[in-house]
């Protein structure tokens, strides 16, 4: 029997962190057109922190995300466009507006232990006729039993796909296998996996997820995403083709858009440098990287020390302010 996988590209959302939320409409059009030509089934467009993320706390978007979603839809009418939404950041009105702009999938994201807050957004997403994902972030921070408990809540609210999201790029392949297999055995939804490459494990972890039963996997072109980026979409498509796993994707135009479009505007190539390695090692949210670098510069302290301390504190998304507090304390030589 031929196996098939749905590939979801997050260049135009997770990549937005690395682009400092400054995607132009033209860049989005060019990437979306390429993804459409390559027959990529799903791709995500929005501020890096999801709908409504444009703010002082997370960074203002240079271009309104609804305008970017509408432009992407025009360029890739046959791909399904997803938007991420975090309850507490994106409102129900943001979700309705995104539907008018052209999304067909909502990915409702919460911290791994906080699925309760996704109820209203998941229910609304279903009412709006969207394909609905529960996106459990920072999956390394909870034992598998807790993951199952939280996933079951999302399933009961109406989620059709539940993601194990390795936001920090901290999971090891055997841990991914265990988590995905447990979901497969205990939850009735489809299962997805989202990786970050901070420990150079994103591809290995993605394959572990697929072998354990995930049928949705995320990637970004040239790995353009937070921290060291995500599993590289075009590489993943090539690997799946070699494994005779059906994705429906045309490899050549995908490689073209990665190299002729994305590589031309990305601020730097996605490598694992000292700081991004520490994200994975210490279990820190990948989108904290640029904040830590900024704080290190501002207070004249070492960015790796900040990230190690943030990892020890088990900081979670929404606690970006802590990064600056830690930097200030380190500059003053004050221990926690
Ligand atoms: C909400 C921000 C975050 O970037 C979502 C995500 O992609 C992750 O947790 O990895
Ligand atoms: Mn991510």
CATH class of the largest domain equals Alpha Beta
Specify the structural class.
alpha/beta
Proportion of helical residues: 40-55%
How many angstroms does the end-to-end distance come to? Answer: 56 Å
Biggest β-sheet description? 8 strands, parallel, barrel
Task: Give the rounded overall mean pLDDT.
Answer: 97
Bound molecules: ligand LKJZXN5G, manganese (II) ion
Strand order of the largest sheet: 2-3-4-5-6-7-8-9
What is Rg?
18 Å
Low-confidence region ranges: none
Number of strands: 10
Binding site for substrate: 13-14, 167, 194, 285
Domain Pyruvate carboxyltransferase: 5-255
Binding site for Mn(2+): 14, 194, 196
GO molecular function: 2-isopropylmalate synthase activity; 4-hydroxy-2-oxovalerate aldolase activity; manganese ion binding
Describe this structure in words.
The protein is an alpha/beta fold and 336 residues long. It folds into 2 domains: 6-264, Aldolase class I (TIM Barrel); 274-332, Orthogonal Bundle (Helicase, Ruva Protein, domain 3), CATH 1.10.8. Helix content is 46%, strand content 13%. It has helices spanning 14-18, 25-37, 65-75, 92-101, 119-127, 144-157, 173-186, 202-212, 233-242, 251-265, 274-282, 289-299, 303-312, 320-332, and strands spanning 3-4, 6-9, 42-44, 80-85, 105-111, 131-137, 161-165, 190-194, 216-219, 245-246. β6 (131-137), α6 (144-157) and β7 (161-165) form a beta-alpha-beta unit. The longest helix has 15 residues, at 251-265. The radius of gyration is 18 Å and the shape is globular. The structure holds the ligand CC[C@H](O)CC(=O)C(=O)O and manganese (II) ion (MN).
